[in-house]
Amino acid sequence: MDSKDWAGYIEATDGLSKPWLLLQWRLQLLQEQRPQLDPETYATELAALHQALMNLGEWWQGQEEAVFGAEESFSGES
After folding, report:
1. How far is CA 16 from the centre of its chain?
2. What pLDDT shows up at residue 19?
3. What is d(CA 4, CA 69) in angstroms, rounded to the nearest whole number?
4. Residue span of the structural domain in which 21 resides
């Protein structure tokens, strides 16, 4: 899935309120830009994404079903 597909998925599923989806989209964008980036820049950007992921913390605890449950499937299947 490319970054445009991710953007469409995020928009279609109200993903702007889902920070883990935004991080996945940002990671896809970075992967697409990798051939144009020098290794140091790529590593710096990847580290920034990792830190953003770690900053999410354990916000999902206690709401796993609502966040990751079967009511919504990435592939479109339930």
Report:
1. 10
2. 79
3. 24
4. 1-45
Q: Are 25 and 10 in contact (CB under 8 A)?
A: yes
18-65 pLDDT, tens digit per residue, is: 777 888 888 989 999 999 999 999 999 999 999 998 888 777 677 777
pTM of the model: 0.63
pLDDT beyond 60 at 73: no
Q: E strands, the chain, where? A: none
**Rounded Cα–Cα distance for residues 51 and 45 (Å):** 10
Query: For residue 35, which amino acid is it?
Result: P
Number of domains in the chain: 1
Residues, the chain: 78
Residue with tokens 């913390």: 57
